[in-house]
Amino acid sequence: MNDQSKTSLTLTILVAALTVLTVAFLSNLWGRTSPVADLPLVPPWVTNTATARTNYADLIRMKADLSDFDCYVCHDQKKPPVLKFDANHNIIVPDEHKDIVMGHGRHNRNNVCYNCHDESNLELVQTRDGRELKLSESTPLCGSCHGPTYRDWEAGVHGRTSGFWDRSGPIDRKPCVSCHDPHSPKFPSREPAPGPHPLRVAGSRPSQERTH
Ligand code: HEC
Ligand code: HEC
Ligand code: HEC
Ligand code: HEC
Questions:
Q1: Rounded Cα–Cα distance for residues 195 and 28 (Å)
Q2: CB of residue 113 inside a 6 A radius of ligand 3
Q3: pLDDT score at 209
Q4: Residue 53: is its pLDDT beyond 90?
Q5: pLDDT for 148-201, tens place per residue?
Q6: Which of 48, 85, 118, 136 could make an S-S bridge to 57, C-beta 3.0–4.6 Å?
Q7: Which helix (H) or strand (E) holds 24?
């Protein structure tokens, strides 16, 4: 066999082999591997940056229905509502305020409305040291009893600070009532967010991944 016929033979074998492979691939002889499963979307509640609560100041900005805050539509400016208590000295919340669930502190130690609301002007709240604040600016009210937490909040250790971390622009420190209901302030426990997706579990084939 001379060099030329060796070359022809090699090329013929190559062409034949590639033709067989082409036919095999086109006729899908080994079956296709299933496509990699789509990554499940992160549930929207995990990436939602809204605070747990919409407070009074938020409602004013949103121009929402503020009738719950119009105290003097129902109350008389000259006659502050009289607090009612049951035999065990637990406060009785009247039906007109049944959306309010009182439970401030583990032993309901701060359930008395006028610890916070000002009886002589229901549209204001009053701090322990006698300051009068608008109902929409209640953070110093909370701070007047929760000094250490308030100092943590001012330092950015408690609560949430948004905006410019290096103070090159304004910062936005969320008020206490963005997270805590003033009437039942215990923060409910929440479900942890799902862990990161590992894209493909080591050792598993894509077809297996589709099952979960
Ligand atoms: C839709 C009408 C209505 C509105 C609005 C309203 N109240 Fe009342 N509230 C009542 C009625 C009715 C009672 C029970 C009778 C009473 O004590 O005057 C009551 C009772 C109260 C009491 C006594 C609670 C107790 O345990 O005995 C307080 C304090 C009070 N209201 C505060 C407020 C404040 C503060 C606002 C505004 C932020 C407000 N209310 C808005 C109708 C209303
Ligand atoms: C720990 C302080 C505190 C106590 C105690 C308290 N409140 Fe309030 N209350 C607030 C603050 C602060 C707001 C405004 C919350 C916001 O910005 O969303 C408010 C809002 C309200 C409102 C208007 C919005 C709504 O939830 O209906 C009413 C009415 C009201 N309080 C009545 C009462 C009554 C009645 C009591 C007693 C049974 C009471 N509060 C006890 C702090 C308090
Ligand atoms: C008049 C004083 C007073 C004011 C004003 C006040 N608190 Fe409290 N707070 C208390 C007391 C007392 C407790 C109960 C402490 C305990 O049980 O050990 C408490 C408990 C709490 C708790 C813990 C609840 C739990 O069950 O673990 C939170 C959260 C809280 N307050 C948030 C707030 C927020 C937010 C405000 C402002 C809207 C506020 N407080 C205003 C006195 C106050
Ligand atoms: C961005 C949300 C957020 C804001 C704003 C916020 N808190 Fe809290 N706070 C929480 C959460 C969540 C917990 C529960 C922590 C836990 O269960 O371990 C908590 C717990 C607390 C407690 C229970 C005791 C403790 O320290 O663990 C108090 C009291 C309290 N907050 C007061 C305040 C006061 C006062 C302010 C405003 C000056 C405030 N919080 C602002 C989210 C917030």
A1: 38
A2: no
A3: 45
A4: yes
A5: 999 999 999 999 999 998 989 999 999 999 999 999 999 989 888 888 777 765
A6: 136
A7: helix 3-26
Residues in the ligand 2 pocket, defined by CB under 6 Å: 55-56, 68-69, 91, 93, 97, 99-100, 102, 104, 110, 113, 115-117, 125, 135, 138, 177, 182-183
Integer angstrom CA distances of residue 198 from 34, 44, 139, 203: 18, 19, 42, 12
pTM, entire model: 0.86
Where b means 16+ CB within 10 Å and e means fewer, 72-101 reads eeeeeeeebbeeeeeeeeeeebeeeeeeee
Confidence (pLDDT) at 21: 94
User: Ligand 2 centre from 117 Cα, in Å?
Assistant: 7
d(CA 175, CA 178) in angstroms, rounded, equals: 5
183 neighbors 100 (Cβ within 8 angstroms): yes
Find where tokens 């003097």 sit.
Answer: 72
